[in-house]
Prior knowledge:
- The longest helix is centred in the N-terminal third of the chain and has 30 residues, at 3-32.
- This protein has 23 helices and 17 strands.
- The chain has 3 domains: 3-33; 46-232, Penicillin-binding protein 2a (Domain 2) (Alpha-Beta Complex); 305-513, DD-peptidase/beta-lactamase superfamily (Beta-lactamase, 3-Layer(aba) Sandwich).
- Helix content is 37%, strand content 17%.
- The chain is α+β, with helices and mostly antiparallel strands.
- Mean pLDDT is 88; it is low at 34-43.
- The strands form 5 sheets. Strands 2, 3, 4, 5 and 10 form a 5-stranded mixed beta sheet that branches.
Amino acid sequence: MNNLEQRKFIVISSFVVIAIIFLMRLFYIQVIDDSYVSSADNQALRFVTKYPARGIVYDRNGEILVLNQAAYDLMVVPVLVGEVDTTSICSLLEIEKDAFIERMEQARNFSRYRASIFKKQMTSEEYSRVAERLYQFTGFYGQKRSLRIYPDSIAAHVLGYIGEVNQGHLDKDTFYRSGDFVGISGIERQYETALRGHRGREVLMVDVHNTVQGKYEDGALDVEAKAGENLILSLDLQIQKYGEQLMQNKKGSIVAIEPKTGEVLCLISSPTYDPNLLVGVKRASNYKLLSENDSLDPLFNRALMAKYPPGSIFKIIQSLIGLQDGIISENTGITCNKALVGCHNHPSAQNLRQAIQMSCNPYYHQVFKRLINRGEAKSYFEDSALGLDRWEKQVHRFGLGERLALDLPSLKSGSVPNVELYDRIYGERRWAFSTIYSLSIGQGELEVVPIQMANLAATIANRGYFIDPHLIKEPLSTQSAITWKKHNTGIDDVHFTPIVDAMQWVVDKPGGTARRARIDSIKVCGKTGTAENPHGKDHSVFIAFAPKDDPKIAIAVYVENSGFGGTWAAPISSLIIEKYLNGTIADTAKENRIFRADLISMEDED
């Protein structure tokens, strides 16, 4: 056989082999495998996304804080939509004809062949009414998903809310697809990867009448959705609810912590809002109302983001630093010289306990002066800089001036002034103690956020250390590496004894500034503060812990524009403490006074 004939044989053989392959494949499709026949008869395969149930959120006692409610998206595949009775479908969906035309155009622009959402987040009742007639409208079908629901309508600033992904989410994380939902704020955002679960898929066969004929290949291509992980928070639902009731008609915050663990028992920002408002199709319009049209700014989380001067509460830190550095002792007495700095009328403090009990401003003016000016440099200005630098580092160890490791987004750090700040303001070494003495009583450039003050109360309760405050009570299986650190202040245990005694005197002894925080059955230790406010009335501030010898709760309360700390913040704190420890309130007159108080209206009248 010559080369020409050989090549001819190879070409013919190749064509024969290819023809045989095609014939065998055609035979398999038409005779053996009837799925293609079935698919042709049924006109379409429908790929349905199976959205996972988002994780349920519980409080520390197993009470449900957030759960899921069934909802449905009406989907459309434009290429399958034939002649449609526009009037009929618009009546069914309760939309205008123009809206129908616009949505169909949007769907075609997205893809003629892929499904997209035509009407989102229909309730079960709404969808059941529509589903009965969907067979009349080829190309439309329902897709199940879920919406969040908040049974007690509380803890909006902690729990947060979810919303539809935007382009930024899609660009940042390939997990998401258009139409998915993602945590936008609070716990929903912080623990998004645990809560979201994993989507699944179902492949269905659909006939020309838009009726499902069954699963394609008995579900061989289906993928089961995996539900999100349930979370157990440290919040106590009853205390959270009670605190929000106490703070109605008031601006401010309450944060309570279990000292030994750092678990947050309640975190309240007031005014608040019903988290159910930010669920479903009305979320966008409700968010706009809350953010733009409400002068009280209920979306603002005052517990984590509002910055205030600590006021007289800061005297506790000044006392501890002074004791540790040997600048004062528990028996140090200082004359209440009002020529140095203003003060209310009381006898001069004969010792440290009395100074804290009566909250003497001149006492702490002198303590701070001794901390700052120690004669370590020849220049008065350089000596002040050395003292402030040392003092700043010591204050930071109490968790001030830096962001605490709380497992919530958008937490502010507050600020502790340093040498560099005053050099920028006044010029290098052109300032001294006489320039910054307002820091002695927690004013000036000092700024704290309320959770830092609650953390300070926990630190005193623990006699010198704090655990990172946090909201997750139990480790997550997907994030089991989470650990909460213990932070030591560097203050010896012995120095906390006079401080704790004095804080009890503040509440229990005549002349104490927080007598309204007294509880007959519980030894409460506290400290009042009146944080100056350049825009109106001063803010009422109080921190406390209880019981004295075995603390189980530490708390900070801020009530804006309401005057002295002992007037409003102190009794609110005591009610939370009593409710948490005893379960009931003995002094109902105190409780009713707080419930009735409308401090926002009082502020407006002023």
